[in-house]
Every structure is written in structure tokens, then in C-alpha cells.
Amino acid sequence: MAPTFVTIILIACLAVLAVLLLGVGGFAKGGEFNKKYANKIMRLRLLLQFIAVLLIVGLTWLTRNGG
To answer: Three-state DSSP class for 67?
Structure first.
């Protein structure tokens, strides 16, 4: 179960990275895209980070409790 969990965590972290890079790219370019989507991208990044942290905490809990 742990290798599957680690794979899910890796995918979640890569999703956070992708959204972060999208936000930084939009900020660097500026213009209409940044005005329209900057706040939505930031909210999505925060949601994905929260999910990734919960998964990491869950894996730590499973590992410490013999799961």
C-alpha cells in the first residue's frame, strides 16, 4: 500500500508544481490572462497544497502505526 500512496503523493506534488508554474508564468507575462485567472490559480494551488499535505501526513501516520 505504501508504494501506491507514495505515487499518489508524487502526483499531487507535481500537480502543485504545475499550477505554481502556471501562476508564475501568468504573473510574469501579465496582461489580461493574469487579471482574469491569477486569483483562481492561487486558490487552486492552495487547495492542491492542502491535499498534498494531508496525503503526506496520512502516509506518515500509516508508516508510524504499522500500516
So the answer is: coil
